[in-house]
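To the wet lab folks,

You asked to see what we're planning to order before we commit. Fair enough. Below is the target structure as tokens, and below that is the sequence we designed to fit it. If anything looks off to you, flag it before the synthesis order goes out.
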């Protein structure tokens, strides 16, 4: 949904999907950022964010955030390297 508002006619969604790297350092950083934000993390550890195929949901529509630790058929590193640049030449990371 957010990619559409960047590149085309806006289409508002009820959630924000974030695909993250399962690299251990990144998983630790994501966990710490969520903890500082006050996200509900009861029973979770940074290792949960390093588990390929796992996902985490926070909030309720229309302001829900889904954090994806994998997308079937895709690898994070090659996709990240090919992320497109937006109209102002800044890179705007979207799946698509």
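Sequence we intend to order:
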């Amino acid at each position: 949904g957010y990619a559409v508002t960047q590149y085309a006619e806006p289409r508002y969604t009820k959630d924000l999907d974030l695909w993250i790297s399962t690299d251990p350092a990144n998983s630790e950083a994501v966990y710490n950022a969520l903890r500082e934000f006050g996200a509900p993390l009861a029973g979770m550890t940074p290792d949960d964010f390093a588990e390929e195929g796992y996902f985490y949901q926070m909030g309720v529509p229309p302001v829900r955030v889904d954090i994806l630790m994998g997308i079937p058929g895709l690898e994070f590193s090659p996709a990240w390297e090919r992320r497109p640049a937006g109209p102002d030449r800044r890179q705007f990371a979207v799946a698509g």
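Structural context that might help your review: The first strand starts at residue 15 and ends at 19. The helical segments are 2-7, 24-37, 76-81.

Thanks,
Computational group
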